[in-house]
Amino acid sequence: MTAAPSPVLDRIRIGSAPDSWGVWFPDDPQQVPWQRFLDEVAQSGYQWIELGPYGYLPTDPARLTDETARRGLTVSAGTVFTALHRGSAVWDATWEHVSQVAELTKAMGARHLVVIPEFWRDPTSGERTESDTLNAGQFSDLCSGMERLGRQVRETFGLDIVVHPHADTHIDTEENVTRFLHGTDSALVNLCLDTGHYAYCGGDNVKLIETFGERIGYLHLKQVDPEILADVIANEVPFGPAVKRGVMCEPPSGVPELGPVLAAAQKLGTDIFAIVEQDMYPCPPDQPLPIAQRTRRFLSSCGA
């Protein structure tokens, strides 16, 4: 019996990111040098990349353009970190950080800025730094702050922000993601749906795409190991230590199934980036390349 052909996912733009090479910080001796990341991501068959933490890749646009172009790579997005639930007191510092990243993102020809909310516990040590829930005033500040950010980023740099639901932040579970979407203007704020983080927090990725398709502006592709996740949840393990345990695993060994997620995204009828991010900090320097190559072959088998 002949196997059914894979669907044609011609609206999906597949890429990878420094995260899949164990990169969480601009400079860290445990991380591979940026030149090796660029060499290996191209060797793995990816065309699109993200900037990763600002300062990891060269921040001079001319130099970065030269380094990416000669490897056949193109930047899809930059990433910023925000704590906008803290209100107007953090706006100036937030905008200074966002402007720096957005300027480079624009110079590289990308159109998206991935916005990650502040963690409520330290991602490395796991120490709780604030409450894991927001009161009404903080939630209102979060929503209005993201709208202000979306408006100003678009007016100043011509970029669209996509907010990244993330474990150990206030935008994580289906309930909190839905609340955030209902509390923000779709003309200014949309989502970067990270399949691994949403599954980590108990969400159904396909259901979210089918329910809020017009708000899905970007994808991060990753999977979680359900056995490790069960232990992480049972013992309230913080995200950073959970990553060290291997909670984010190589596809297709975890959840969610990426084929149905990509098929649901294809049905949205718009071109959309789907950037692989496995979360492997820290990892041995020789570990990422073979995983990246196998992951790219797997995604090709899905039609992407």
From TrEMBL:
Domain of life (superkingdom): Bacteria
Domain named Xylose isomerase-like TIM barrel: residues: 38-299
Pfam families: AP_endonuc_2
PANTHER family membership: HYDROXYPYRUVATE ISOMERASE, INOSOSE DEHYDRATASE
Record-given protein name: 2-keto-myo-inositol dehydratase
Taxonomic source organism: Actinacidiphila oryziradicis
Source species taxonomy: Bacteria, Bacillati, Actinomycetota, Actinomycetes, Kitasatosporales
